[in-house]
């Protein structure tokens, strides 16, 4: 009897001890233990997370997965232009990079990478040629058909081999304004009426084209005549950034004094005709004026223009010079601002550089003959 009671008491004590031990285990540990795969040492992910990740990977192609890695961190697009990277490796296309640096210059602020906020400039940002080559090998679709080819070949396909590319009639020089897909050109040529027209019927078209060619010929002849004049000076100028003394200071550029035709001159360049807050608009232009710094006693009639110089820091910049006329005297020593024939993208490239470098031409008019 006593032995039976003792065994029952021992069983009760053991059951109480095991219950206490179970209560001392935290809930978080129980959860972790339940996730352990006892066949290995790894902890399994929840099933729903695995399914979501796998489904996402299956829905995206390799090009779609790599696109955000190689895209510009500002416009978020794969660029066909040059790609620059900040000191920490963040990519920016050429257009966005120059626009960002030009914006900060107009606001008199230091430009910074939009991702890591490190300082960026033309000096410490380099081109990433490896990424440019990778992007050029990524596939893209033709703008006119469904053909897919590497980006480095798409321009040739769209301009030369695509059957849907826009094509003009072979008799467009005579006035035919037909435009259609390339594969329809043969059928159009069989029905085009311009080969059957008489010379009298084509005179109007020929006259219009002759006027255009005559204008180009006159421009070239004028440039040649100007170069033959003895009183002509060419100066390689460098414009440095400056600010006005207004309450809201405006950025402009100015050269140091330079000598031409026995007089002292300087050139000023302004942005958007000195309008306020040019950094708030994406459309930008540059205008320049010629300033006479010497005292003169008689009127000086000049022709002048600005062109790209041999020391330009923008070798790809190209624009057609515009010849201007002005009569300088004691009261008129500054010309009006003359707009440079450049695009907004080229304007941003110039503004993002440390200085502007051009070649400035001044010609004295010594006769009444037209040049």
UniProtKB/TrEMBL annotation:
Question: Has keyword DNA repair?
Answer: no
User: Which residues fall in a coiled-coil region?
Assistant: none
What are the protein's GO molecular function terms?
Answer: zinc ion binding
RING-type domain: residues covered: 72-117
| Keyword tags | Metal-binding, Zinc, Zinc-finger
PANTHER family referenced in this protein's UniProt entry, alphabetically = CYSTEINE AND HISTIDINE-RICH PROTEIN 1, ZINC FINGER TRAF-TYPE-CONTAINING PROTEIN 1
Family label: Belongs to the ZFTRAF1 family.
- Stated name of the protein: RING-type domain-containing protein
């Amino acid at each position: 009897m006593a032995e039976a009671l003792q065994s029952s008491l021992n069983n009760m004590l053991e059951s109480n001890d095991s219950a206490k031990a179970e209560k001392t285990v935290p809930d978080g540990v129980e959860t972790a233990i339940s996730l352990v795969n006892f066949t290995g040492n790894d902890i399994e992910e929840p099933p729903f997370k695995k399914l979501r990740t796998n489904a996402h990977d299956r829905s995206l192609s390799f090009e779609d997965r790599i696109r955000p890695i190689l895209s510009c961190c500002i416009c978020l697009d794969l660029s066909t232009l040059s790609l620059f990277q900040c000191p920490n490796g963040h990519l920016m296309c050429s257009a966005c990079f120059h626009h960002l640096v030009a914006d900060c210059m107009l606001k008199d602020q230091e430009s910074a990478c939009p991702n890591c906020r490190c300082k960026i400039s033309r000096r410490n940002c380099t081109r990433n040629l490896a990424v440019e080559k990778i992007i050029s090998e990524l596939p893209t679709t033709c703008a006119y058909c469904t053909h897919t080819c590497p980006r480095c070949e798409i321009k040739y396909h769209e301009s030369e081999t695509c059957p849907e590319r826009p094509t003009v009639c072979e008799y467009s020089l005579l006035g035919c304004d037909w435009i259609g897909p390339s594969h329809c050109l043969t059928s159009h040529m069989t029905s085009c009426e311009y080969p059957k027209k008489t010379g009298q019927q084509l005179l109007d078209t020929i006259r219009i084209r002759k006027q255009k060619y005559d204008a180009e010929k006159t421009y070239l002849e004028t440039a040649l005549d100007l170069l033959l004049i003895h009183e002509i000076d060419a100066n390689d100028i460098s414009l440095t950034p400056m600010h006005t003394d207004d309450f809201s200071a405006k950025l402009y550029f100015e050269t140091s004094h330079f000598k031409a035709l026995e007089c002292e001159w300087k050139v000023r360049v302004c942005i958007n005709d000195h309008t306020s807050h040019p950094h708030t608009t994406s459309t930008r232009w540059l205008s320049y004026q010629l300033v006479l710094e010497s005292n003169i006693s008689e009127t000086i009639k000049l022709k002048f223009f600005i062109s790209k110089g041999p020391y330009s820091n923008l070798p790809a910049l190209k624009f057609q010079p515009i010849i201007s006329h002005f009569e300088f005297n004691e009261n008129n020593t500054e010309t009006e601002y003359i707009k440079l024939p450049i695009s907004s993208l080229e304007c941003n490239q110039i503004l993002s550089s440390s200085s502007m470098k051009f070649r400035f031409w001044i010609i004295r008019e010594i006769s009444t003959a037209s040049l």
